[in-house]
């Protein structure tokens, strides 16, 4: 479908790729379980929308490997700060946000740890998670993330900031401004663009005249890479390298273009049959990141049928528990409407 | 006390806060070696270095967005938008994002940033160096907007803004920068945001204004004194939150109110002040509330005849006051 950048190989049977990257078989099974949980949760949220309980759902199906890989590299690094976007559910799960919090966030219930039921999709900020997602104004997080990264540098801290956004977001003027500013200041930031070739219905060729968004990085004076965003290990490797580069004295930003897929309509409000051919959707399904990881692990004998069944069963149970608890939560009290307009 | 200009007061406020708090910093176009086009940051880069005084690319959205990100990291940025006429690019980050962050995070994430914006006309700046932008800002919950008229207020309010945990826009009328001088205490002080100030006491009519226009109001009040009418001049100083109590107290005393501002009439600050008076002091009034505000054209034009026709002056305000006094 496209040329990938570095390290797309699946390794050899003797030395599977994950082990050469320092990831144990157990770690891989854990990641597979996370991805399975992400998928199960995503399916449940969609169902909750159809039941009239979740007003809006933006499915992350097709972007799980990219989001999980970003989260994994950042979490392992231990000193990263994130400016995610609405399809980053896998990343959030890696960073310890619970399925129950995610369901609550979609139902608009009291106890929403990011916004108290004021926004959907877990936007806002929490007291103890290293991430900020102010809004769903596409592209608004880019300049903020660069400011945050420059702030870390001013304070002499080693934190690396990662920001994610879609191909649609890359068209915003603020994306240009953020990348330009980051280049000038060698800001310790990693730009992660999930390119699913669609901004709602508008295809890539109507959004830009180039094939690879990564090409743009050169214009800002830092490297850009094309990454197969459906391949967890390729994502992990590239994000890890970008984090390291961000931190180096003469390093700075990297732009990672994750070639991903969108396996569902844009959101639960969308009808993608109006603009997407069945063949195109089928082709996308052929690059399902969950299937890809499953076959990798099965082929090298790390994932057995019984483990697969166990993992799926556990994911189902966890999602059931989360849904039950979240549905029991109360909606926010109307008396909280006027709170927090200003900070004390 | 020392007599200073508004621009000197602004510079002193920022400098003192930067000396006192290493988290305070500034960024904007030409704020480094040039010291800002109005010299607000003169000497700063030499004193505080390039990390705390950032010359930015010519891109207002990023100036505001980067400032917000810096604030998230715990710094206290002061962003300078070179002229109000160019702030529109930054509106997304200031109004769309910064003003909503605290509310949208249920109080978890404050956005302590100041955006300084030189604004206003009467300087032969034409359509794109004269704009009054306050109407677009002051109706935003989550944002504070200050608009000082003199050096004392500018210094005290700007220092308070820098210490505030919310996004604050500081509107600095360009014509006051060097045109208005006044006494500034030598010691440390701040002024509370959200408190209006009676600049001249009077008994017969209240005129409510801010910024450059306030000075024309004072001159007009002087003229009215000669005609035997005692005019109270109330300086709003802060446009959000408006000082309801201050406005009502003055209007209840005089029973007549004239609101004066350079910005367009429709939907301007005067409309809100008028609504406050109408809702809460209707029975205290002896005359309809009057407004003398900018005509509803896009901005004041360049040609001197057209600019003069748009701009306020003491005579125009006196005429309005005469009408109101005679009602
Ligand atoms: C500034 C802005 N314009 C329009 C929208 C409506 N909108 C929401 S998502 C979206 C498409 C975004 O596409 P992309 O950035 O590629 O991300 P994807 O949804 O494909 O992951 C649009 C048009 C918005 N939220 N913000």
Commentary on this structure:
The complex is a heterodimer of chains A (344) and B (327). Chain A has helices at residues 17-20, 25-50, 64-77, 89-94, 99-107, 140-154, 173-185, 204-207, 232-247, 278-285, 289-299, 305-328, and strands spanning 80-83, 124-125, 132-133, 160-166, 189-195, 198-199, 202-203, 224-228, 254-259. In chain A, 44% of the residues lie in helices and 11% in strands. The longest helix of chain A has 26 residues, at 25-50. The model of chain A is unreliable at 1-9 (pLDDT under 50). With 344 residues, chain A is α/β, with parallel strands linked by helices. Chain B has 327 residues and is α/β, with parallel strands linked by helices. A 7-stranded mixed beta sheet of chain B has the order 3-2-4-5-7-6-12, with helices on both faces. A 5-stranded mixed beta sheet of chain B has the order 9-11-10-13-14, sandwiched between helices. Chain B starts with a strand and ends with a helix. Chains A and B meet through strand 2, helix 6 and helix 7 of A and helix 3 and helix 4 of B. Bound molecules: thiamine diphosphate (TPP). Residues 87, 136-138, 165-169, 194, 196, 198-200, 266 of chain A line the site of thiamine diphosphate (TPP).
Shape of chain A: globular
Q: What's the name of the CATH homologous superfamily of chain A?
A: Thiamin diphosphate (ThDP)-binding fold, Pyr/PP domains
Q: What portion of the residues of chain B fall into strands of 2 or more residues? A: 15-25%
Mean pLDDT of chain A: 95
> Biggest β-sheet of chain B, characterized?
7 strands, mixed
**Strand arrangement, largest sheet of chain A?**
1-4-5-9-8
CATH homology superfamily name of the largest domain in chain B: Thiamin diphosphate (ThDP)-binding fold, Pyr/PP domains
Number of domains of chain A: 1
Largest interface pair: A-B, 44 and 44 residues
**Number of DSSP strands of chain B?**
14
Number of domains of chain B: 2
* Beginning-to-end CA distance, first to last residue of chain B: 42 Å
Q: What bound compounds does this protein have?
A: thiamine diphosphate
Q: Tell me, what's the shape of chain B?
A: globular
């Amino acid at each position: 479908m496209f040329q990938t950048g570095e390290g797309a190989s699946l390794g050899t049977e003797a030395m599977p790729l994950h082990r050469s990257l320092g990831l144990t078989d157990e770690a891989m099974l854990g990641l597979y379980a996370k991805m399975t949980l992400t998928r199960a949760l995503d399916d449940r949220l969609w169902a909750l929308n159809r039941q009239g309980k979740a007003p809006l759902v933006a499915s992350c199906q097709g972007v799980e490997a990219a989001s999980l890989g970003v989260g994994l590299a950042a979490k392992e690094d231990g000193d990263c700060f994130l400016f995610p976007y609405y399809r980053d559910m896998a990343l959030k799960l890696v960073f310890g946000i619970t399925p129950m919090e995610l369901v609550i966030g979609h139902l608009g219930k009291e106890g929403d740890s990011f916004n108290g039921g004021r926004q959907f999709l877990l936007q806002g900020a929490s007291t103890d998670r290293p991430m900020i997602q102010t809004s769903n104004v596409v592209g608004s997080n880019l300049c903020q993330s660069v400011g945050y990264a420059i702030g870390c540098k001013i304070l002499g801290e080693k934190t690396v900031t990662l920001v994610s956004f879609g191909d649609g977001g890359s068209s915003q003027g603020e994306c240009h401004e953020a990348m330009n500013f980051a280049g000038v200041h060698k800001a310790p930031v990693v730009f992660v663009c999930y390119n699913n070739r669609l901004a709602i219905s508008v295809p890539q060729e109507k959004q830009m005249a180039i094939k690879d968004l990564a090409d743009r990085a050169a214009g800002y004076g830092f490297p850009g890479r094309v990454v197969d965003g459906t391949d967890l290990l390729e994502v992990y490797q590239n994000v890890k390298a970008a984090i390291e580069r961000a931190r180096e004295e003469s390093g700075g930003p990297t732009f990672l273009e994750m070639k991903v897929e969108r396996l569902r309509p844009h959101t639960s409000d969308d009808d993608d049959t109006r603009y997407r051919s069945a063949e195109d959707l089928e082709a996308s399904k052929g690059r399902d990141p969950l299937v890809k990881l499953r076959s990798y692990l099965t082929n090298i004998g790390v994932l057995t049928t019984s483990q697969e069944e166990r993992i799926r069963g556990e994911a189902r149970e966890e999602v059931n528990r989360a849904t039950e608890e979240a549905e029991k939560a109360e909606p926010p009290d109307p008396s909280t409407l006027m709170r927090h307009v200003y900070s004390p | 006390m020392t007599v200073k200009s508004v621009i000197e007061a602004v510079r002193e406020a920022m400098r003192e806060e930067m000396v006192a708090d290493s988290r305070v910093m500034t960024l904007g176009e030409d704020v480094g070696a040039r010291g800002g086009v109005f010299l607000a940051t003169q000497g700063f880069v030499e004193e505080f270095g390039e990390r705390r005084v950032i010359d930015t690319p010519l891109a207002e959205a990023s100036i505001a967005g980067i400032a917000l990100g810096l604030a998230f990291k715990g710094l206290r940025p002061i962003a300078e938008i070179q002229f109000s006429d160019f702030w529109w690019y930054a509106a997304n980050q200031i109004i769309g994002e910064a003003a909503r962050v605290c509310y949208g995070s249920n109080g978890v994430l404050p956005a302590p940033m100041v955006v300084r914006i030189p604004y206003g006309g009467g300087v032969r700046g034409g359509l794109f160096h004269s704009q009054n932008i306050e109407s677009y800002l002051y109706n935003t919950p989550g944002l504070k907007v200050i608009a000082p008229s003199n050096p004392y207020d500018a210094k005290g309010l700007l220092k308070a803004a820098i210490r505030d945990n919310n996004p604050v826009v500081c509107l600095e009328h360009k014509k006051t920068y060097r045109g208005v001088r006044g006494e500034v205490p030598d010691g440390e002080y701040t002024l509370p945001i959200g408190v209006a100030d009676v600049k001249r006491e009077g008994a017969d009519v209240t005129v409510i204004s801010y910024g450059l226009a306030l000075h024309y109001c004072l001159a007009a009040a002087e003229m009215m004194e000669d005609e035997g009418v005692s005019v109270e001049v109330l300086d709003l100083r802060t446009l959000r939150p408006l000082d309801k109590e201050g406005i009502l107290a003055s209007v209840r005393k005089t029973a007549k109110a004239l609101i004066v501002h350079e910005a367009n009439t429709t939907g301007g600050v005067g409309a809100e002040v008028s609504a406050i008076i109408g809702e809460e002091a209707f029975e205290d009034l002896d005359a309809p509330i009057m407004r003398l505000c900018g005509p509803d054209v896009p901005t004041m034009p360049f040609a001197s005849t057209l600019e003069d026709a748009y701009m306020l002056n003491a005579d125009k305000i006196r005429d309005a006051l005469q009408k109101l006094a005679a009602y």
